[in-house]
Amino acid sequence: NAGVMQNPRHLVRRRGQEARLRCSPMKGHSHVYWYRQLPEEGLKFMVYLQKENIIDESGMPKERFSAEFPKEGPSILRIQQVVRGDSAAYFCASVQPPSSYNEQFFGPGTRLTVL
Amino acid sequence: DAKTTQPTSMDCAEGRAANLPCNHSTISGNEYVYWYRQIHSQGPQYIIHGLKNNETNEMASLIITEDRKSSTLILPHATLRDTAVYYCIVSSYNNNDMRFGAGTRLTVKP
After folding, report:
1. What is the average pLDDT across A20-32?
2. What is the DSSP string of B17-74?
3. Share of chain B above pLDDT 90, in %
4. Phi and psi at residue A86, in whole multiples of 5°?
5. CA distance to partner chain B, nearest, from residue A51 (Å)
6. What per-residue confidence (pLDDT) applies to B6?
7. Is residue A68 packed enough to be buried (19+ CB in 10 Å), middle (13-18) or exposed (0-12)?
8. Any CB–CB contact under 8 A between B56 and chain A?
């Protein structure tokens, strides 16, 4: 897990507010995944990005959720108009192809609580 | 459409080997078996992966049956710090969508 940074570690928002979650991948990694984990459940894939490009967003909800990974700076997962059902732990993972895409290095997660 | 089946929970005595089974009877020829674990409230940690041969690293061993329909993760000398949820995942080499199921909650007891 060393090297992948996520902030904030805990985020509290009221319904209707926006949540911004940040992920800095391991040094030298140019690809990141975002996952969501509801309480007592496994991780669910959301989106896979490389710098300046979304590769696969098939796991992203169609509304209110967006992700980006700019050329400079961290990857951002943005949730607009949050609802209570968005309360979860959000993990990012980084990987550097052409090594196995599935050897992912995870960050510590951001725990979002929507009041 | 879960690809893997794992027991919900297991216990293991400290210092003994922990053997975690996984069934993946619908695995296809180009899919690997991956194991990750998640210690409470932390991000998942990669353990090991394999295609058809048995694999070993500093953390664990992976035994895959000849027909590839099941596998076993072995922690040779479990410690209290190995208490975690262990996920068995089958996925093709470059698949973006790793399906984490519910996993097996391993509790190592003193």
Report:
1. 92
2. -EEEEEE-TT--TTEEEEEEEE-TTSPPEEEEEESSS-EE-SS-EEEE-TTSSEEEEE
3. 76
4. -80, -10
5. 16
6. 95
7. middle
8. no
